[in-house]
Amino acid sequence: MEKQTAIIIPARYGSSRLEGKPLLKAGNKYIIQWVWEKCSKCKGIDRIIIATDDNRIFDACKNFGAEAEMTSSEHKSGSDRIAEVAKRHPEIGYIINVQGDEPLIEPENIELVRRGVVEDNSADISTLVREITDKEEVNNPNLVKCIFDVNNYAMYFSRSKIPYERNEGKSKFYGHLGIYGYKKEALFKMTSLPQTNYEMAESLEQLRALQNGMKIKIAIVKNIPVGIDTIEDFEKFKEMVEKKID
Fold first, then answer.
1. Of these four, 65, 66, 134, 143, which has the most CB atoms within 10 Å of its CB?
2. CA dihedral 79, 81, 13, 57 (to 10 degrees)
């Protein structure tokens, strides 16, 4: 039987910067509903599951027609949450982890991630980067940078500026976008491994995969999906939605 490809969207109620953001409403739709609708437009996806630890999010998702599953509230990362859901579904072979706070994500970008992990037999994981042209962004530790080889496999991710420019103008810089595709076995392997020294130093989970010899396929995109991390981010998104409705 052919393995299914599923988008799993982790969504938790607690957030240090914006509590309850999946259930904030813009244009009479929840943030999580906007994300789910974008995912519903993707080609090559067999199902979409919202993974949450909160009954309010679970009930809201059921009400607008989404498939949702409850997960433990003890998970330390979104990867652990989606791994719990994946373990319940032997029919799923490929998983796309889409963040529940990115209502502006493009379906085409999700499809690139899907292709990276489904069509490349050597890839354990797939993700996206975009070129950075702003010098301030290059030096911003909140924007994770990525370098990759000639076959578009990640070599390293860092909050520092990489590569270091001894000879200026010889290299482009790329910022990482937080969306991942996994072969299911790779997801289980990564979430079962202990944290590595680079992962703990940089606070970047994907470094655990790289340090353990896993291959991460990179695709380059031009557009930048903006996540909703603060109330200001939400107000901007709400304003944009309401302008379109008017």
1. 66
2. 130
Tokens, residue 219 = 């695709």
Q: Cβ neighbours of residue 169 under 8 Å, at least 6 residues apart? A: none
69-126 pLDDT per residue, tens: 999 988 888 888 999 999 999 999 999 999 999 999 999 999 999 999 999 999 999 9
User: Which residue type is seen at 123?
Assistant: A
Strands of 53-210 (E only): list them.
67-70, 92-97, 125-132, 145-148, 154-158, 173-183
CA 160 to chain centre: 20
List CB contacts of 231: < 8 A, sequence separation 6 or more.
18
Question: Does the pTM exceed 0.70?
Answer: yes
Q: How many residues does this entry show for the chain?
A: 246
Residue 208 CB coordination number (10 Å): 21
The amino acid that residue 245 corresponds to is: I
H or E stretch at 111: helix 107-118
CA–CA distance, 82 with 100 (Å, rounded to integer) = 12
